[in-house]
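Something for you to look into today, if you have time. What I am after is a single protein written out in full by you. I want to see for myself how the chain folds. Could you add the entry underneath, on a fresh line?
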Amino acid sequence: MDTMRLTTEKPALLLGLIGEGIRESLSPTLYEDEAAHHGILCLYQRIDLDALRLTPAALPELLTSAERLGFTGLNITHPCKQAVIGHLDELSDEARAIGAVNTVVLRDGRRIGHNTDHYGFTRNMQRHMAGRALGHVVQLGAGGAGAAVADAVLRLGASRLTLFDLSTERARDLVRTLRARFPDAAVETGGDPAEAMRQADGLVNATPIGMASHPGTPLPPELLEPRHWFAEIIYFPLETELLRIARAKGCHTIDGIGMVVHQAARAFELYTGGIPADSARMTDHVTQVLKRRAAARQGC
């Protein structure tokens, strides 16, 4: 008599995050929880350059190791979003245009780079700006995340964008790229932050300043006025110092949870070959985890 073999194997994902100062990143629980709702076993590993005492120069070795170990894909964060491009086989149209990658799919022996930061920031702004005009935007940070955010800001309708970065050359390079893509917008590098903020409608922080591993504020807080809106892309901690100050001043504020959730939802779809993630469920999950962390710290 023929016998029927029953299998308990589930679809599986092996994922990772490469970046500096990521020990508090919620990517592991975010992806693992969402995968479980789809009956997928997901294992997610932080690959913290700081903890490993590595620099972005180790990217070739890390990518090769991930391929050999059977990783499905990798999230890429500061300071590797631009450095990783030279080690990939293919770029999505969006990643090529923006010049930054935050998601690498490893499939059939090829490394395919995508940018889901743009999508994540766009969705977050659309949800929380609620009819407010972007107008003149001051953006801090012209790196990998900054390139995606700046493109999104202009596509959302900002008429003027002033960019500040610790590297003047990097800011100028991004301005040149954006001017070519958005000839009808006024895009410029910033000189005097105080003067820029006097003219601005809103502020975006696309730097790592404010993260647990990079404490402080990327801009003198006194330059924020109640009439400004402020968008943060950092989500750990849940409330950066500048976000807390902006809220205390009465500014309309947008935290970084929406961006990280929507970019992760899009990346999840890429990793799984088209399975849509539930962004509302992911938002609830990450919010609850962050609240528990904050409560635990206060109880210490």
Summary: The radius of gyration is 20 Å.
